[in-house]
Amino acid sequence: MSEPIFSVWNLTMRFGGLTAVDAVSFDLYPDQILAVIGPNGAGKTTVFNVVTGLYAPTEGEIRFRGQTINGMAPHLIARLGIKRTFQQSRLFENLSVLDNVLVGMAATARHAFVRATARRDLLAQELDRDIDVALELLGSFSAELKQQCLKRAGDLTPGDRRKLEICRALASSPVVLLLDEPAAGMDPRETAELMDDILRVRRLKRGIGIILIEHDMSVVRKTADSVVVLSYGKIIAAGTFADVSSNPTVQEAYLGSSV
Amino acid sequence: MVGGDPYKLVIAPPAQKPALRKLAAVGILTTGFLVVYLIAVLRDQWIVLGLTGLAVAALIVLDRRPAWKWELTDLFARERSVVVVSAAILALLAPLPLRRDPYILHVLVMVGISMILAIGLNFQVGSTGIPNLGFAAFYGVGAYASSLLAIAFALSFWTAIVLAACVAALFGFLIGVPSLKTRTYHLALVSIAFGLVVYILLNNLGFTGGPNGVKGIPAPVFLGQSLFTSVRIFGLAYPMQMNFYYLTLFFLAVTLLAAHCLYHSKIGLFWNAVREDEVAARCSGINVSTAKILAFCVGAFFAGIAGSLYAHYIGYISPENFNMNVSLLILGMVIMGGMDSVLGTCAGAFLLTIAPEKFRALADYRMVAAGMIIILMLMFRPAGIVPRRLRDYRHILARKRETGAR
Prior knowledge:
Mean pLDDT of chain B: 86
Oligomer: heterodimer
Distance between the termini of chain B: 24 Å
């Protein structure tokens, strides 16, 4: 297999006496979809918060394309090409759908102040290009979303909000995409659409690595190439979905829930 | 063409009868301007009341008929150059009939200064979501910096105002850096503390003149002529307030241009993103700290300009001109006018500067009347006189559609 684009080694995050993430290690390869599963409170979202720079890890190392990114500021990590979505929707509610995607391109924006004041010609060109990219991206997810691009983002349906959040994260063409429970609160039809969307992202953006936190096992089974199971901050199993779901430790962690 | 779906307007046919549209735009603008102008200028309470009722009715009608509102914004957006030129001409002509009324001219100058202040605060409160309850501190720093520099080094007004704006911006930076650690209520408290600190320092430092303030601030000189002298145009003498009307108008135009440029740019967009959700903004690649500090600096810069204008206009400043009440008043202008809406903040500044003058007849009850206005506003128009709108990309999208079809 090729080199991993993103790897986490021995990652540990302690909040006072609580060890939320305990010596977690995994690798992510290009074109791979890695699912992180585990019971509530297992530390999945904390892993995301640490690798996106919202928390500095207590121990361990996060490497992105051979560069250590521990403790870097979130916006710098985003500019490197690691983007995420959030478990609770964090859209910019009072901005339009299009503006949400344009903000998603912040990671690639340069010389914002100069362009705002002295070089408005460059700004106009940039905006023109960005809108093309944004509309194409929105259109590749759903024609309705593109139609509604001037609507207030807060007025979208839950399914469209989730799509928009993925679009916003993808807008700067990231190398690693982190999806935090994208199927939470969705009905079966929306979940089915979401699975198509995730697979579509991998098709559209060649070489992208996706890490997916998910509780819905149908999503994990259909999309994930490999699965990491967390419980109380530790990895208790890793492998393909079939390996993991037949693992007795995992079944125990889920307390008999049908995995 | 309906107002419900904004995207529908993108495919609206190109404007018919361009001359007629231009005429309509100018006509609507002039009518609106006249109503506002007469409200400001006339002293007869009943006429003023009637005109105010008319303006309120117009706003209510536009609210009830979103389609008309879309048409109107669309018209003004398409005919932007004509509208801007007409507005400039109207603003330039406005003081000419007021030759015998220096007091009204004075009020108009104060309206202009308030507008600059409100736009400055709007960068922070409206665009970036930084609650700043100590904005008068920047205003005061600008006023003191300008007067003290002008007196101590015999600088011209033009040098002093630029330096004062820069000093105020530096203060914005200095208060911006520590306040990055706080948010929401805590940040509001920090800003109150900052406002108080500046007020107390102005009162107690030796070189600021303490509670006595600074006297004898030199008048601006333009083309060898002191702006404190009256000018003659076509044999008619105009009061010196008119000089300051045009001076303020010039700086207001600069401020409006800057606000327009920043709002319609990635900076304005990123400020909004920070306001909406800081964490999401961070994870999108926005340096939230830089964005906030920039908002502090830009806002303080314009407060500095307003302060310098005020100092050189009145000729005398004291700490009382920059106390907590002033901070709250400017904040009121932004909130009442419409947060993150330049037109709205200007409307708010106009209203809150004019209102006390209009209620003079009520004598001791005028503060009650001002309070009533604020309560009524918050009840019936909580988003402000001119609420912020989503960024308008209709014309870019329309152009793309037209060129794409070929």
